[in-house]
Amino acid sequence: MRIGMVCPYSFDVPGGVQNHVLDLSRTLGGLGVEVSVLAPAADDDDLPDYVTPAGRAVPVRYNGAVARVSFGPMAMARTRRWLRDGRFDVLHVHDPATPSVSLVALSLSSGVSIATIHTSIGRSRALAATESLLRPAMEKLSARITVSREAHRVVEQYQGGDSVIIPNGLYVDDFDAVPRSAGTTGRTELLFLGRFEEARKGLPVLLGALPPVVDRFPDLRLVVAGAGDPKVGSAMVPEGLRHHVEVVGRVSDAERAQLLARADVYVAPNTGGESFGIVLIEAMAAGAPVVASDIRAFADVLENGRLGALFANEDPGALAKTLISTLEDRARQARADLARREVRRYDWSVVAPQVVRVYETVLGGGSVG
Amino acid sequence: MSTLEWILVVGAVVAAITVALSTTAGRLDRLHIRLATAQASLDRQLLDRSTCLRNVAVGGVLDPASALVAVEAADASRAAIGKSDQAERETALSEVMRTVFGDAEDVDALWAAADEPQAELLADLGDACERVQLAHRFHDDLVARTQRMRRKRIVRWARLAGYAPWPNRMDFDDTPPPHLVAHERPVASSEMGQQQG
After folding, report:
1. Could you give the ipTM of this predicted complex?
2. Which residue in A has a C-alpha nearest to residue B61's C-alpha?
3. Which pTM value belongs to this model?
4. Is A58 within 8 Å of chain B by CB?
5. In this structure, is residue A369 part of a structural domain?
6. Would residue A233 count as lying in a domain?
7. What separation in angstroms does the CA of B97 have from each of B116, B122, B178?
8. With contact defined as beta carbons under 8 Å apart, do A17 and A37 qualify?
9. A90 in the same domain as A179
10. A355 and A328 both lie in a single domain
11. Do A71 and B63 touch (CB under 8 A)?
12. Mind listing the pLDDT tens digit for each residue in A232-280?
C-alpha cells in the first residue's frame, strides 16, 4: 500500500501535527506501509528521506496564530509533481482547512483521499468567504479522522457529518522508561511546558495562581520549559515570584522526559485552542501527576478528573486551590500511576494499526491488500 | 537717537518678527493639512488594495489555499488601518501577494488563464497596488518636509506646531508581484500632477 501524506506546517518549528506526521509515517513504515510525506520546506533543509519539500515555508497569520505554510504557484507545481510521481493508493492530508499544501494536494488529487483534522478551530471569516472555493476539495474526502472528541464535535458542528476518532500517538516508552525522581530535589517542583509567550498556553494564569501556593509551600519552584526566548519568559514573571520561577527555554525530547520525571506536578493551564493535548499524554506516560484546565480536550484526556485534576479554565484562584489540594494529597501518585497504565492506548503500536484499518476500509479491501 | 526713532525701530523689529512668525505658522499649517490629506489618501488606497485582493481571491483566479491566505491577509490589513500594527500588516499583505502570485512567469500564466471578468479583477488589483505605491511615496515625502520645517528654530522656540503630533513615515513594503501592474510607468508623468491637484 502506498500512502501520500501531507503535512501543512513546516518542520522547522516543532509542533504537534508535525511530530504526529513524522512518527506516524515512521511507524507505518515499520508495518510495511510505504509512506511519502509532502511538507513545506526548502530544498536544503535537513529532512528524513521520505519527506519531499514543497517549497520554502512562509509565515502567515491564520486564525490568530502564526503558521509556517506553503502556498502559491511554487507549492502547486511541487504538489502536482509529487502526486504524479507518487501514484498513491491513498492521499492522507492533515488539517486541510489550513491554507497550505494539504489543501493544494486535495484540490489537485483525483484518487482516494482522507483527512486527519487536528485543530479545533471552527470557522473563520476567511473560511466562510472562500467556502465555495474549498467545497469541491473537501467533497473529495472519503473519510475524516479526528484526533479527539473535541475535534470530532467541531467537525460535526461546522462541516457536518461524522468522523472517526483516532487519537494522536506517542512512543509511550520514551517517557515511561525514565524512572520517577520527584521529591529528590528537596523542593516542591511544578512544571510548565509549551510556548510560554503565547497567551493561550496559559502561563499568565499559572503565574497569577502562584502567590497563595508559594505561601503554603515556601520551597516551591516552577520550571518553565518550551520554545521561546527565556528572557521574554522571565520578564513575564512578577518581581515577588522571581526566585520561585526558572525559565529554561527550549528543551530536547529527552530533557522533557527528565523534567516530567522530576516534577511533583505537571500543570497545563492552556486557555483554549487545543484539540488534543499530547503533552498531557506525555506527562501521564512519565508518571507525573497532572493539573489541567477544564477545556474540553483536556477533560476528555483526563476522563473528567479520573486521571488528573481539573480546574476552572482561566481562573487563577481555582488553579491555586487545585494545586494546593493536589500537592497536599498523598494519593496523587497513585492516581498518576493509574494514568500511566491508561495511556498505553495512545502508544503508536495501538494507534498506527487503527489508521491502517481506515486506509483498508476506504480502499474497499480487507486485511490482505 | 530720539525717543521717536527708538519707537520706530522697536516697532519695525516687532513687525518683522510678527510677519516671520505668521508666515512660518501659515506654511506649517498648510503642510499639516496636506499631510493629513496624504494620510487619508494612503489609508484609502490601502483599503482599496485589500478589497481588490479579496475580490481576486474569491473570484476563483487563485488556488483554494492561496485564496484562503489572501482573504485572511486582506481582512487583517483592513482591520489594522489607523492602528499601531498597520505597517506590519501591510508588509505582510505585500509578502503574501508575492507568494500567492509567484514570479513573472506564474503571473503571466494567471493572466492567460483568467477570463474577462477575472482579468478585470486582476487589473484592478494591479492599479490598486500602483496607487498604494504612489500614495505611500507622497505621504512619506510630506512627512519628511513637515519634519524639516518643524526642526527649524523659529518653529521650536515659538512652539508654532502647538500640539500637533510629530509626523512619522509609514515604513512598510509596498512592492507588488511582478507583471501584475499592467503597464510599467515611471512615477513622474501626468499621474503625479493629477494626484497633487
Report:
1. 0.76
2. A133
3. 0.83
4. yes
5. no
6. yes
7. 21, 12, 10
8. no
9. no
10. no
11. yes
12. 999 999 998 998 999 998 998 889 999 999 999 999 999 987 778 888 9
